[in-house]
Amino acid sequence: MRVLVVEDDPDLLRQLHKALSDGGYVVDQASDGEEGHFLGDTEPYDVVVLDLGLPVVDGVTVLKRWREAARTMPVLILTARDQWGEKVAGFDAGADDYVTKPFHMEEVLARVRALIRRSAGHATPELSCGTLVVDTSSGRVTVDGSQVKLTAQEFRLLAYLMHHKNKVCSRTELTEHIYDQDFDLDSNTIEVFIGRLRKKIGIPVIHTKRGLGYQIADPD
Ligand code: CA
Predict the structure, then answer these.
(1) Could you tell me the distance, in angstroms and rounded to a whole number, from the CA of residue 171 to the centre of ligand 1?
(2) d(Cα 26, Cα 15) in Å, to the nearest integer?
(3) Which residues place a Cβ less than 5 A from the ion ligand 1?
(4) How far is ligand 1, taken at its centre, from the CA of residue 197, in Å?
(5) Start-end of H helices in the chain
(6) 99 phi, psi to nearest 5 deg
(7) With the C-alpha atoms ordered 93, 99, 100, 105, is the resulting torsion angle positive or negative?
């Protein structure tokens, strides 16, 4: 899952970047509204964390521009305490949720997880396919109740496919949402990870759609 963080406070930006990276997300960042708007307008994100008080272009304007351009990714806004007017403006501009500063990092992580789940149409943190269960809040993966150990990259790939169950995801889409921009984009990489995942999971839920990509779906 790929996240954009737009925040001008360097300490806060660093903390958010670290917490989200540790949480298994691929994180891009921007420290002003102009750069943030550009990234959100041109790159595919699963969720955006957007501070409203930003230099160059303010957060509400950034959000309005995205929504006017039909960019529909979920956006969590960061608002200053006692600024209820800011919150209202943020929601009017198209925000999906908010966190008031100062906040606990755990709250931001929980809200980000919930936004990603909801945007994929899931109400609970547990995603399942046959006897395969992925708990997106604990990172635990089980098949028939037995835990399956995955590497961070394998987990990201599986979680993305599970969030988009039944949809055929192209290799490009998977690469964009799962790896950092500087990751070596060898076209065989996804295939290798898919092969390892299949072996570890052991039940036939990951399907190859020739020429199109991969799909996770209930076994027949
Ligand atoms: Ca700020």
Answers:
(1) 36
(2) 14
(3) 8, 51, 53
(4) 41
(5) 10-22, 33-42, 59-68, 84-93, 105-119, 152-163, 171-178, 188-201
(6) -135, 135
(7) negative
Which residues, given as ranges, of the chain have pLDDT below 50? none
Measured in Å, residue 81 CA sits from the centre of ligand 1 at 12
Q: Residue 127 carries which side chain, given as an amino acid letter?
A: L
φ, ψ (nearest 5 deg) of residue 168: -85, 120
Q: How far is the CA of 18 from the centre of ligand 1 (A)?
A: 18
CA 179 to each of CA 4, 40, 160: distance values in angstroms, whole numbers, following the listed order: 13, 17, 12
Half-sphere exposure of 34 (CA within 13 A, CB side): 2
Radius of gyration of the chain (CA): 18
pLDDT at 185: 62
pLDDT by residue (tens digit) across 59-85?
A: 999 999 999 999 999 999 999 877 889
Token look-up 């839920």 returns: 205
pLDDT at 84: 86
